[in-house]
Amino acid sequence: EKAVNLKKDLAEMQEWMTQAEEEYLEKDFEYKSPEELENAVEEMKRAKEDVLQKEVRVKILKDNIKMLATKVPSSGQDLVTELNVVLENYQLLCNRIRGKCHTLEEVWSCWIELLQYLDLETAWLNNLEERVQLTGNLPDKLDAVNDALESLESVLRHPADNRTQIRELGQTLIDGGILDDIISEKLEAFNARYEELSHLAVSRQITLEQQLQTMRETDHMLQVLQENLTDLDRQLTSYLTDRIDAFQMPQEAQ
Fold it and tell me: Which residues form a coiled coil (predicted)?
């Protein structure tokens, strides 16, 4: 009777493993929204816990069969053979579910990381847009133009590492058919805004550089003119002080 019950337990265990495999490993999942992906991750975590909880039952079953085989070799040996098959299938099921759970957790982590990088780069684009707008109505002063140029250049020196991460993470998920529509839409919008703002910022940078160069040249010319006028004023003053008649002066002084 004990052998019959153990044989029944083995059959039930094998049936449960077959159902678990069909439910968790053979279904075709399509992750078209973050909610679907998150639900799949949680479901696979529960599946992993469910399978691992059966480990105690498997161990008890194993101990009982080995004990029976020791006491009654004739009826226990066949059960040992069946047990080995069940143990092998159980270990395989555990490994496969662990693997799928790990994969889904990695995919979810990849999606969250992509969102974080997009948030960082969007904040940078907002800052860049603000700096560009501030260069629109500058006072016609060299210091103001120089400060605006330096401020814009400091934002433009932003490293490209985050954009590389966005591209690689997005492509990894899209290649896996995961959230591909949503990610493609997000990347397209981000890249379009990045191209537009970066080109506008570089164009404004060039304009400010040219404006600054012109103002510096004008300032230099005014400085030279001022120095020349100062020299001429000093010379004329000396002529007046010495009461030199205008007709005695060189033509240019007259």
Answer: 3-64, 208-242
**Residue spans per domain, the chain:** 1-211
Least confident span in 128-142, 193-207, 209-223, 239-253: 239-253
Over residues 53-62, mean pLDDT = 88
Looking at CATH, the fold of the domain delimited by 1-211 is given as Methane Monooxygenase Hydroxylase; Chain G, domain 1 (1.20.58)
Q: Tell me the C-alpha distance between 13 and 89, whole Å.
A: 10
Determine the Cα–Cα distance for residues 130 and 86; give it in Å rounded to an integer. Answer: 66
Q: Is the pLDDT of residue 120 over 70?
A: yes
Q: What is the DSSP letter of 26?
A: S
Specify the range with the lowest mean pLDDT, choosing from 134-143, 180-189, 232-241. 232-241
In DSSP notation, 33-83 reads SHHHHHHHHHHHHHHHHHHHHHHHHHHHHHHHHHHHHHH-HHHHHHHHHHH
Judge residue 138's burial from the number of C-beta atoms within 10 Å of its C-beta, 0-12 exposed, 13-18 middle, 19 or more buried: middle
